[in-house]
């Protein structure tokens, strides 16, 4: 198995002095920003960083206990040796893209080696390149967002090699946080799509819908892409009206999440109410296979379902896994119901 050296890139590589009173978090953020701004400092950091390898956008994973996967961070020198063995060279490592910095001050990059032989790489690295759609839900919750971010950035680089206006090549900075060129010196930044996801309640029940592509029995909160010119509240109102024919009020923001499927989205999680007198659902079947109201009892039972079930023993309702913001919204709603039932 490939050894990962415990070398840490000390943030002192960022030479700009930081104010003494900075918290560790602020120091980390500012140092990361410096790496995005200064190609030389970033190239130096790369030599001591953890690098997560991808093959055609599938991350390198190792299976661990109880059917889970874990990410495999490698060091620069390890990857250089493997690249040389497989007929590539150190220059490839320059394509690495900065993705973050751990709490232990370990700078983290990712690199796609999709042009190299997958089987030979997997043998050399003692791991498997796993489709993120499969790997995401069995990765540790601390690792899944990092690999999702890495895949999003790598995909963006793969698809923005040329300027859409001039057709000329664009060139990344060393951190891979932007691409410049295309003839006019235009700077291109990674793009993502804002999406609202809303848990609608009538005070006693919550409304969930399912798309034909969902696994059997799975229902989730309603979601939809923001249109240009809309506020968060306007998107929530429009999506609920379009998909289930209801008018919502009391929209409140809960939290957000980067979501990698099918492409990078910023999921903006909300709660909203409908009046119990106007809660008759009218589903648009071009968008949803079904949508219906669920009671507190149905939701709390579904939240207790753990892991996968055997064929023939599927629960009546299956909710999105804990990695998904939909699960967080449903859990928040159930908690609120529990509190208000206690207060009654
Ligand atoms: N993390 C979580 O908990 C959850 C995440 N989600 C995610 O939310 C996202 C949106 O939900 P969904 O109900 O599908 O959205 P919508 O209800 O907006 O419907 C999707 C359709 O909108 C069109 N569309 C409009 N703008 C875009 C855009 N920028 N990118 C892609 N398609 C666009 C596409 O139609 P066409 O191709 O016909 O033009 C697409 O098929 C999904 O990607 C889904 O993965 C959903 C539920 C839970
Ligand atoms: Mg939708």
TrEMBL record:
InterPro entries listed in its UniProt record: NADH_PPase-like_N, NudC-like_C, NUDIX_hydrolase-like_dom_sf, NUDIX_hydrolase_CS, NUDIX_hydrolase_dom
Cofactor: Mg(2+)
Keyword annotations: Hydrolase, Magnesium, Metal-binding, NAD
Coiled-coil residue spans: none
Enzyme Commission code(s) on record: 3.6.1.22
Keyword Ligase (UniProt): no
Domain Nudix hydrolase residues, every copy: 190-321
GO molecular function: hydrolase activity; metal ion binding
Catalysed conversion reaction: NADPH + H2O = reduced beta-nicotinamide D-ribonucleotide + adenosine 2',5'-bisphosphate + 2 H(+); NAD(+) + H2O = beta-nicotinamide D-ribonucleotide + AMP + 2 H(+); NADH + H2O = reduced beta-nicotinamide D-ribonucleotide + AMP + 2 H(+)
EC class (word): hydrolase
Full protein name: NAD(+) diphosphatase
């Amino acid at each position: 198995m490939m050894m990962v050296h415990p070398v840490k890139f000390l943030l002192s590589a960022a030479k700009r002095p930081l104010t003494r009173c900075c918290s560790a978090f602020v120091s980390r953020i500012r140092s990361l920003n410096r790496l995005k701004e200064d190609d030389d400092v970033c190239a130096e950091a790369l030599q001591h960083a953890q690098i997560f390898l991808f093959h055609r956008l599938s991350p390198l994973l190792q299976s661990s206990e109880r059917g889970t996967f874990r990410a495999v961070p490698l060091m620069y020198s390890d990857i250089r040796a493997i690249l040389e063995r497989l007929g590539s060279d150190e220059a490839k490592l320059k394509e690495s893209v900065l993705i973050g910095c751990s709490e232990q001050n370990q700078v983290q990059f990712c690199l796609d080696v999709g042009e190299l032989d997958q089987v030979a790489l997997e043998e050399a690295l003692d791991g498997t390149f796993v489709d993120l759609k499969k790997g995401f839900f069995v990765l540790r919750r601390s690792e899944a967002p990092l690999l999702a971010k890495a895949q999003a950035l790598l995909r963006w680089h793969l698809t923005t090699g040329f300027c859409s206006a001039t057709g000329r090549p664009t060139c990344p900075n060393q951190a891979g946080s932007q691409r410049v060129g295309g003839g006019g010196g235009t700077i291109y930044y990674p793009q993502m799509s804002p999406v609202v996801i809303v848990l609608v309640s009538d005070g006693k029940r919550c409304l969930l819908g399912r798309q034909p592509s969902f696994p059997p029995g799975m229902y989730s909160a309603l979601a939809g892409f923001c249109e240009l010119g809309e506020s968060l509240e306007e998107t929530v109102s429009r999506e609920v009206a379009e998909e289930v024919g209801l008018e919502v009020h009391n929209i409140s923001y809960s939290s957000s999440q980067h979501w990698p499927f099918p492409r990078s989205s910023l999921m903006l999680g909300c709660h909203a109410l409908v009046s119990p007198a106007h809660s008759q659902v009218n589903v648009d079947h071009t968008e949803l296979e079904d949508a219906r109201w669920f009671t507190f009892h149905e939701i709390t039972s579904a939240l207790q379902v753990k892991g996968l079930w055997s064929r023939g023993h599927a629960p009546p309702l299956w909710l999105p896994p804990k990695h998904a913001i939909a699960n967080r919204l449903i859990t928040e709603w159930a908690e609120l119901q529990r509190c208000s039932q206690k207060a009654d």
